[in-house]
Amino acid sequence: MADANVYPPSAEFVQQANVKGIEGYRALYQRAAEKPEEFWGELAEQELHWFQKWTHVFEWNPPFAKWFPGGKINASYNCIDRHLTTARKNKVAILWEGEPGDQRMISYQELHRLVCRFANVLKGRGLKAGDRAIVYMGMVPELPIALLACARLGITHSVVFGGFSAEALKTRIQDLEAQVVITCDGAWRRGKEVRLKDAVDESLTDCPTVRDVIVYKRTGGEIPMQAGRDHWWHELDEGVSEICPAEELDSEHPLYVLYTSGTTGKPKGIVHTTAGYLLQAHMTMKWVFDLHEEDTYWCTADIGWVTGHSYILYGPLSAGATTMMYEGAPDFPQPDRFWRLIEKYRVNIFYTSPTAIRSFVRQGDQWPNAHDMSSLRLLGSVGEPINPAAWEWYYKVIGKERCPIVDTWWQTETGAMMIAAMPGAVPLKPGSGTLPLPGVIADVVDLQGNLVPANREGFLIIRRPWPAMARTLWREPERYKQQYWERLEGVYLAGDAARRDEDGYFWILGRVDDVMNVSGHRLSTMEIESALVRHPAVAEAAVVGKPHEITGQAVACFVTLKKGAWGDRHALAEELRKWVGHEIGSFAKPEQIRFTDALPKTRSGKIMRRLLREIVTSNSVTGDVTTLEDLDVVTRLAAQHDED
Ligand code: WT7
Question: What is the spatial distance between Cα 543 and Cα 607, in angstroms, rounded to a whole number?
């Protein structure tokens, strides 16, 4: 591997690393592969607090797994209480900066107080283990506090990203049959207020299960409060007890449900349970971020996505880290906000997305160069493949050629990192996630399940259950089975294309299903299509991902209109964009809308998305089109330029 494009860790980094040298990695990997029960069992005992020990490490009734059955545990206890008898008691747990520049530093002791109080508030509303809470908040400390309070009582939480619309929120509340919604009056974004409570009000028109709405006051904007249903957090919190013992929950108690886009119009409720999830989030935090006691660690994700769950909240707090949270936009008030934050708080570990990195590249080196970022020791990337040019920029301009970059491949479904470098052990190659982590048996196979030779493209699969894996889809076990475990018997099909090089390194090539990845956010083509056809002017719609310089992919739509719906095309395109924003959320707004007389279909009526993808990529079509119903449609679409 003595290639110019291979970056072995520096001697200096190796010396201080938690896992040192490739032998260190190989020893762990081999032990986990050969004796998974011993491997995970030992870690579970050493690294987590148990009220009661499990009877065995895992149970596997494909595709349903149980980890540490018989055990009693609490995630909130593991993230807070157990640190209170150590030197971490007064350590900053959550280091927060608001977009306007306000700051809060919450110690583990203080976090304990705040979480216990809010857990008692929830109890006071009659909520108990097994109930469900929808959390729709901005990035304020009360968001993790709410989640930890739920976890403390065994209330399953489901965070809905604040960028989702009222419509999207409603379908999630209904699907989960939540008893409570926890929200904010609003959130700050680029100096403007995002009106979260308004969206909650709009969504609750048809949600009979919701008894209470608890509103944390963040922006102070005027909002209506519905008597009996809506309560201010600070009012319920008055005089509440600071003592709230953590419930002793089963290892497999559902910790959270997180909705993610699938290949149909209906989002999937990914179910994560407690013990196995926490163990893998905790271990990967130490292995991949090489976490040290003194580190200030910052993951820039939103807690509305799985990255925030595992690597702002559960992983870092379980490991006793100082986890930083920033409320607002990266370019507010200026494009150097992130670099300012790194300088100000002396951040050591910084974890962000390729889309963010590419937009920093575009803004220019003068922004990071104006700041002292010498505290940085390790960089991370997640959410989408990182192109080597962006990697090199991140390495040179941000890391000053001193900081390893861990490119972490995982998914909402995997719960925790699966393929990623241990930075003191594994030499890096720009654009590759490198090697699987201990306990992860990953391969690249063809449609028959046979291994493909080195450097050939195939499907990424995982062969054995892993602790943080999704246990099922909320109330859809059949769909869980079909989606991930049936196409290739007995193995987990990730939905990504990948290749493995001659050194066994994994290169992720992108989704193989009808899922797009826009700025590291997963969007379903079907979900956007269903949104479009709900508009009165639209007859049919087909949506594909279009390569995009900054966001990786962008949403491109082909739309046929109902008779008489033709008017001003530009105005209609704009209206449809807004419509998608209204139905799903502004982050799903299409970049491009093309109107057409007909969509290219096979004789059986299936829309040929492959052709549409080619059209948006290159404006030309090659390959087999003989099954097309109307060849003219394709040629016309290809000829038409994206004026809209
Ligand atoms: C999909 C999962 C993992 C949390 C954020 C996204 C893509 C994710 C990488 C990476 C290449 C990546 C995959 C995956 N992806 N990380 N390091 N390199 N691709 O979670 O919304 O569940 O999306 O994101 O396509 O399947 P998600």
Answer: 10
The Å distance, Cα 101 to ligand 1 centre, comes to 31
**Domains located in the chain, CATH noted:** 11-35+59-74+261-500 (3.40.50.12780), 124-247 (3.40.50.980), 533-639 (3.30.300.30)
Q: What is the mean pLDDT of residues 391-411?
A: 98
- Measured distance CA(161)–CA(136) in Å, rounded: 6
In this predicted model, what pLDDT tens digit does every residue of 358-392 receive, in sequence order?
A: 999 999 999 999 999 999 999 999 999 999 999 99
Burial of 3 per CB tally in 10 Å (0-12, 13-18, 19+)? exposed
Sign of the Cα torsion 307, 309, 310, 312 reads positive
CA-closest residue to ligand 1 atom 20: 411
Cα–Cα separations (whole angstroms), residue 145 to 164, 208, 539, 582, 597: 21, 26, 45, 29, 52
* Average pLDDT score over residue span 18-26: 97
Residue 410 Cα to ligand 1 midpoint, Å, equals 5
- Residue 209 Cα to ligand 1 midpoint, Å, equals 33
The pick from 164, 302, 394, 411 for probing ligand 1's pocket by mutation, whose C-beta has the most ligand atoms within 8 angstroms, reads 411
| Residue of 270, 484, 517, 523 to mutate, ligand 1, most atoms within 8 A of C-beta | 517
Burial class of residue 491 (count of CB atoms within 10 Å of its CB; 0-12, 13-18, 19+)? buried
Please state, in angstroms and rounded to a whole number, the distance separating the CA atoms of residues 20 and 423: 9
Question: Which of the residue ranges 41-50, 247-256, 257-266 would you say has the lowest mean pLDDT?
Answer: 257-266
568 vs 390, higher pLDDT: 390
Global confidence as pTM: 0.94
Could you give the CA distance from residue 198 to residue 234 in angstroms, rounded to a whole number? 19
> Of all protein residues, whose CA lies closest to atom 11 belonging to ligand 1?
385
- Which residues, judged by CB distance below 6 Å to any ligand atom, belong to the binding site of ligand 1? 260, 306-307, 382-385, 407-412, 433, 494-496, 508, 511, 517, 520, 522
- CB-based contact 220:187 (threshold 8 Å): no
What is the per-residue pLDDT across 481-517, written as a single tens digit (0 to 9) for each? 999 999 998 899 999 999 999 999 999 998 888 899 9
